[in-house]
Amino acid sequence: MDLDSLVGAPSRKRVMVVDDDPDTVFLVKLLLRRQGYDVLGALGGMEAVKKCASLAPDLVLLDLMMPGMDGWETMRDMRQFSNAPVIIVSAKGTKDDVIQGLQSGADDYITKPFHDGELLARVQNVLRRNVQTAVMHRMIFSDVGLTIDHDTKTVTINGSDARLTQREFEICALLARHANETVTHETIGAEIWGEYNSDVHNRIRYLIYLLRRKLEKDYRNPHIILTRDGLGYMLRTKP
After folding, report:
1. Domain chopping of the chain, boundaries
2. Which top CATH class is 11-129?
3. Which of 91, 135, 200, 226 has its CA 20 to 30 A from that of 184?
């Protein structure tokens, strides 16, 4: 895609649909796409938290009764790093359920089964009220003492400012968004410089070296930023 052609074009809002029923996710995504929204789906709480961290939706439609990680826990985890508004979409429709949902931080509550027009109207109203795009503010990895603040563009390690440069911060934040996953050299190059070649590869290696000097107790024996030989790097932390 020629991104220059998009300059000045209206931005599309991104909505994530979270439900353990794949048919519900498919149908709601189809409904939203027809109304001009970009959509993504998650079939469980863990998947929803991961996608929220990496793809930053503008709005989340969240089911409550999901196996494993339910909607309440999912919303609490997402609120740690995202201010995206949440609309609960649940078969639990008593007055007490609605009150609990709103008091727990949801922006709206819709009871299943719902009318398509009602869902779209609620989505539009919540997005209209939420004038700021959802962003990750702070990521905390307490097991390694690492905190990444996206508002101030600062990184602290065990409470001390690591004093990262802009490029160092960008790479650190990228690795953090994909914690415990290998981020390839090609991905880092594309995300940070918009290209990947031998010069970019060498810049990445040098910046990783500088990051380790600032974040690791022993940069020659790293425990936070690990090398995946021939592939890339991984920020290792507890799940």
Report:
1. 11-129, 138-235
2. alpha beta
3. 135
